[in-house]
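Input structure tokens:
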């Protein structure tokens, strides 16, 4: 039951009369509820692929079927609406607004979706509960730890109930202990039924995932299911 089907995806960036081919034919299927880590050296195409998976950018070749819908040639406005309903993003930079409380930050995407105040508050609290922060809902960023801030960012990514959670180096700014705290949350979210795809440079972080896809020079170099997931409970 694939949520993501990539067929020979290509992406070139054009700069003047020069083209940089960032993706050179990437085919990949990800099933619902999978937990995938995307790895590879800097410049191998991870961010480009994540931007395409997240409907932030379109491929220059190939097909992308998301939840049965071909999004590869969609105009930008349709792509934006798919993005808002299907995708949750978590970035290395937390991107929280410091003047707003945790709950207000989490509710932001719902304002853009035109949802009323009462429902916004309820759904923000529900999302904060999923990341174990319901008791911190009234705190602002400067009253939260780094790990808690990233958990608020995860709650914000979840508030629209997306079918796909994408995270680009979500622990890149965190120390080892805090990274573990954040990764426990991703595991819980995946166990609750979400599909999670994250980019990381760190093997320790990738070890939380059940499948590791490695890229090099714009292609997939290897794609491995972890045997340990059978033993590990
Ligand atoms: P990372 O390796 O952490 O993904 P990068 O430095 O590769 O970070 O990219 C950071 C951002 O800059 C990305 O959004 C990427 O698309 C963009 N970017 C990377 N290389 C170039 C480039 N040559 N010209 C313009 N933008 C770029
Ligand atoms: P990674 O995330 O693995 O570091 P990227 O997807 O950021 O890799 O980059 C892949 C290649 O595409 C690199 O050569 C990078 O410089 C280039 N690139 C990425 N984004 C852009 C952009 N916006 N404009 C031009 N080149 C880019």
């Amino acid at each position: 039951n694939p949520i993501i089907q990539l067929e020979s995806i290509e992406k070139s960036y054009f700069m003047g009369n020069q083209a940089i081919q960032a993706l050179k034919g990437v085919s990949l299927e990800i099933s619902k509820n999978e937990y995938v880590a995307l790895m590879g050296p800097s410049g191998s195409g991870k961010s480009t692929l994540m931007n395409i998976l997240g409907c932030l950018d379109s491929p220059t070749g190939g097909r992308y079927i998301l939840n049965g819908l071909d999004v590869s040639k969609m105009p930008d406005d349709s792509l934006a609406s798919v993005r808002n309903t299907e995708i949750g993003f978590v970035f290395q930079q937390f991107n929280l607004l410091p003047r707003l409380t945790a709950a207000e930050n989490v509710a932001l995407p719902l304002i853009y979706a035109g949802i009323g105040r009462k429902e916004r508050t309820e759904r923000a609290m529900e999302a904060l509960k999923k990341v174990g922060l319901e008791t911190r809902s009234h705190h602002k960023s400067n009253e939260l730890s780094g790990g808690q801030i990233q958990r608020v960012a995860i709650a914000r990514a979840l508030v629209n109930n997306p079918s796909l959670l994408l995270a680009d180096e979500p622990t890149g700014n965190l120390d080892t202990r805090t990274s573990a705290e954040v990764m426990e949350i991703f595991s819980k979210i995946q166990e609750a039924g979400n599909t999670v795809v994250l980019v990381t440079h760190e093997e320790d972080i990738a070890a939380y995932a059940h499948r590791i896809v490695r890229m090099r020079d714009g292609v997939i170099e290897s794609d491995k299911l972890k045997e340990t997931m059978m033993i590990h409970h």
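The longest strand covers residues 2-15. The pocket of adenosine-5'-diphosphate (ligand 2) is lined by residues 13, 15, 20, 22, 40, 42-48 (CB under 6 Å).
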